[in-house]
């Protein structure tokens, strides 16, 4: 598919089974998205994986150290270094909603020795920015959907609310008077609150921070009222009582916080999940992508790794590059609609 993600990049040459995609992504990917789960474009160079990796591999993480994406990347690539016998070296290239790191990957040699660990903003940025220094659909080869993570609706403990219904009632009594943090204008957390406000019929005062860490610190310190915080960053603070957990943005129940209800119990149909994934530059040899995908699938299947990720509220399932590509297409469609309807822009 020339218009699909990775149109010039490397597939594995295998057509993804729709049932596999559904098992992986449901309820994240709508049925229409499954038709996109297929190999696209030419494979880079026709080589096989050979002895890859025969030297250290650089992994660009598009966010600063200590955040949710960085935490997941370090768990996965530390273990991958052990299983493949070469170092996968994290290089944090944060800034501009992940676009700085993505641009660096797009300009890298497509030989498998520079990878990227990115997150939800990758699928949001094409709608958020009028122009990007890369083509999100054509300059990257999606390799592995690492985790899917809900946000947690958290409040500073002094705010007199304990349920989503309480939050909505308070917001309606004080239109525009509730300060609501995000990790930045156009961030995944900004979109989560924009979608929540629209579906709940309320008006909130958006306060963008320069990253999720500072926003969470101000929730803990009582400087701001509410925040949709990435679960990997905030789950420990909810368990300790440093912040009040009100709800999560997935559907069903979270194993790590079984008593925390979903927002959808009060606002039917609400769902807002973040994801982390691994990319290579377009035209990276298909066999290298296939070997990387297989190795990462093996890592997340290990009980110790799966337990660590689950403890952070992160879910993962086996998946192929084609399934990840289809998931990205569905995410771009979903968040493009939210950005347009909320009138969000950063430039």
From TrEMBL:
Residues 28-56 are annotated as: Disordered. Pfam families: TctC (PF03401). InterPro entries: BUG, Bug_dom1. Residues 28-40 have a biased composition (Low complexity). PANTHER family: BLR1237 PROTEIN (PTHR42928:SF5), TRICARBOXYLATE-BINDING PROTEIN (PTHR42928). Belongs to the UPF0065 (bug) family. This is Tripartite tricarboxylate transporter substrate binding protein. It comes from Roseomonas acroporae.
